[in-house]
Amino acid sequence: MTGSRKNNLNMFLTSAEGPAVDRKGGIMKSPQSMGTNRSGIDLSPQGAEEMTKAVQEFPPSSEGNAHTLTQLRAPYLDEADPIGSIPLPGTIKGAAKSGMQKLMGRHAEVLIDKLGGRLAFERTGTRLYDALIGKFLSRKDEATMLSIDELQRFRAEEAAHIGLCWDALRELGADPNCVTPMADTNAVASIGLMQIIADPRMTVAQSLHAIHVAELADNDGWQLLIKLAREMGQEDIAGRFQTALEEEDCHLAAVRTWIEHICLDAAGVR
Amino acid sequence: MAINLLRDKGTPLDRQHFTWKDLVPKPISKLNVDAFTRVRIILMNGIESETNRFSHSCARMNKELQGYLARVRRKEQHQQTIVNWLLPADQSPLETTIGYEQVAIEVTAALAEAEPDPYIAQVLRFGLLEDFDHLYRYSALLDRLQGIDANTITQGYTDIVPGRPTVDEHRDPLDDLREHYDKRKAAPLTKLHAYTILAGEHQTHDYYMHYGPWFADPLARQLYAEIASIEEQHVTQYESIIDPTESWMEKWLLHEANEVYNYYSCVEYEDHPQVKAIWERFLDYELGHLQFAIDVCKHVERRDPAEYLPERLPDPIAYQSHREYVRQVLRDEVDLRADGTRFVNKTQEPERSLNYRRQMNVDGSPSEIVAAGWRWSPGGELVAGQGFKEAA
Questions:
Q1: What tens digit of pLDDT does each residue of A56-80 get?
Q2: For residue B66, what are the CA distances in angstroms to B15, B37, B62, B300?
Q3: Could you list the residue range(s) of the whole structural domain that residue B208 is in?
Q4: What's the complex ipTM?
Q5: B390 domain-assigned
Q6: Is the pLDDT of residue B256 over 60?
Q7: How far, rounded to the nearest angstrom, does the alpha carbon of residue B187 sit from its chain's CA centroid?
Q8: How far apart are the C-alpha atoms of B295 and A224, rounded to whole Å?
Q9: How many CA atoms lie within 13 A of B307 on its CB side?
Q10: Nearest-by-Cβ selection for A66 from B155, B327, B381
C-alpha cells in the first residue's frame, strides 16, 4: 500500500489494532506500548539520508543564524504595550478600607496583582482537580495507589483557597472579579495543563504530571505571596495564607509520591 | 473499485444521519499515524470546506436552488466536522501547519505529474515550488521557536529545503491570474485537479489567517501574515484556471464529483482502519449527493448531467512521496516568474511585481529572517554538529 511504510525495525511486534506483545509473547501493560511511534527517523533511514542529501544540494537562501531572528523581534519589544493594567480600587469606599490605608505610600498594585494571579490559579487548579477526578473515576486501575478521598480533599482545599484570595482582595478594597496581569499570565500558562488532563488519550499518570507542574508553581506562588503580604504590613492576611501553604505542601508531597510510584511500577522496579 | 458517477446511487440523502457523538470521533495519534493519513485528513477538510463555500455562493445567486443546496450542505457540514475533528489536540497549530504544507507539496506534485494539460501542469508546478518553500520556512520556525524537528510530522517523505524563496513570491495581483481550461475540451481529470487544488489552497489560506494571531511571537505572526498573503495569491491563481463560463449547476455537479473522486482516492490509499471506514462511509454519502444533484439538474435545468460529467473516475490521487519529481522541478523551474498569465524567466518579470515586492519587503522579510542560515538536520539545529551518538 503506497503512502505508508512498513516498519523495518522494532523491539516489539505490533499490530494495527491489538496490544503490543513482547518477544516472549507477553502482553505489554502500558497503553503507550500500543502501535508504532513514527515520529523518529530510525523507521525511515532512507528518508533521512535523502533529506540530508537535499540539504547539501539546496542551501539556505539567506545567511545568518538563530540570533538573526532578534533583528525582527527587537522593535516589537521596544514598542510593546503591557498586557493590561493592574486594577486599583474602583470606589472611594474601597480606597478607604483599612487594608488599603496600610498600603499607602507603597506599591499596592504589586500585591493586588499577585493576589489576582493566585486567585485565578486556584480557580483553574480546582478545575484541574475536577478533570483529574473525573478521569480517575473511570480509570482507577491505571493508578491504584491514588486515593479518591485525597483527590477530593485537595480539590476542596484548592476551592477554599479561592475564597482566601477573594476576601483578601476585598479587604484591600480591590475588585476580585478583575483579571489582573498576573491572573492573565497564569491563565496562559495553564492552557497546556488543562489540555493534558482534559484529553481522554492522556493517562492518569500523564495527567498527574500536569497537576505536578501546577502544584509546584502553586507552592512557590503562595510562599512569595506570604512574604509580600508580610513585607507590606498585611500580617492577618499572611497568617491565613500560611494555612493554605501548609495544605499546598501536602498536595505537592502526595503528587510527588504518586508520580514516583506509578513510574516505578510501570518500569517493573517497585 | 469501479465507480460509475452517473449511476452509482451511494447512500441516499435521507439515510445520511449523524449524532453529536458521531461528529467527534477518536482523533488520530500525532505520534503513531502515518504522515499520509494526516495529509488526507487535512486535504479532505479543505475539500468539504470548498464545497460548502461554493454552495453558499450558489445559494446567494440562485433562489430556485436554495432548498436543494441547503439539504446537501447540512450533510457536508457534518462530514467536514468529523474529518477535521480527527486531528488531535496535542498537535499544535504550527505542527498542523507543517502538515498543511506537506499536503500542498505531495498533493500538488501528484496532480502536476498526472495532469494531461501542459499549461495547467505548469501552473501546478509553479505553485508547488512556492508551497515547497513554505514548508522550509515553517520548519525553521518550529525548530527555532520550540526546538521541534518538523520531520517528526513529515516522517521522511518530504524534503525540507528552500524552494522558490517566499521573499520572491510576492507578485502584482495581475501576475497571479492564469488562463482557464476550456470546459468543452478539458479532460475530466483536469477539472478534478483544478477543483481539488483550489479547495486545498483556500483552506490553507483560511487556516493561516485564523491561526496567525494565535502566536505570541512577532516573528511567527509576521511569517503567518506573509505566507497567508501568498496563499491568497494561490487561491487567485487556481480559481482563475477554472472555466468561468461553467453554469452554477455544472459547477455544483463538478464539486460533488470531485468529492467522490477525492474520497475514492483516500479509500484506495488508506490503511488506518478507523479513518478508512470514514472515507468509505463518506464516499457513499458523496455518491448520494451527486445523485441528488443529478436529479436537480434534470428537473430544474432540464439538462443531461452526462454533458458535464464523465461516467468513470480517473486513477486516484497518488498519495506517496514525490521527492525526485519535486527536486527535478526545483532544479528546472525555480527561476520562473509570472508575467500576466505567462511564465517567464526572472529576468523578464514585470516591473509592477518587482515594485510591489520591494514595497512589501522594505521593512525586512520574515521568511528570510526566520530561516537565516537554517538547514534541516535530524533533531533540529540544537542537535546538529554536537557529536551526539548516531543510531547503532
A1: 999 999 999 999 999 999 999 999 9
A2: 21, 35, 7, 12
A3: 13-370
A4: 0.92
A5: no
A6: yes
A7: 20
A8: 72
A9: 12
A10: B381
d(CA A123, CA A114): 14
Per the structure, how many domains does chain B have?
Answer: 1
pLDDT at B390: 80
Which domains does chain A carry?
A: 8-57 (no CATH), 95-266 (1.20.1260.10)
Q: What does the DSSP assignment read for B217-235?
A: SHHHHHHHHHHHHHHHHHH
Instruction: Note whether residue B147 is domain-resident.
Output: yes
Do residue B162 and residue A37 have CB atoms under 8 angstroms apart?
Answer: no
Residues of chain A with C-beta less than 8 angstroms from the C-beta of B156: 41, 44, 46-48, 50-51
For residue A50, the number of C-alpha atoms closer than 13 Å in the C-beta half-sphere is 17
Among residues 47-76 of chain B, which lie with CB inside 8 Å of chain A?
Answer: none
Separation in Å, CA B218 to CA A29, A79, A189, B369, B381: 45, 12, 19, 12, 21
Query: Is the confidence at residue A11, as pLDDT, over 80?
Result: no
Is B129 in the A-facing interface, judged by CB distances under 8 Å? no
pLDDT above 50: residue B376: yes
In a domain, B377, yes or no: no
CB A4 within 8 A of CB B271: yes
Cβ-Cβ contacts under 8 Å, A4 against chain B = 34, 36-37, 271
- What local confidence, expressed as pLDDT, does residue A23 receive? 36
As given in the structure block, the three cell numbers for residue A210 are 500536569
> Which residues from chain B sit within 8 angstroms of residue A39, using beta carbons?
30-31, 152-153, 155
| Residue in the block written with cell 525586512 | B364
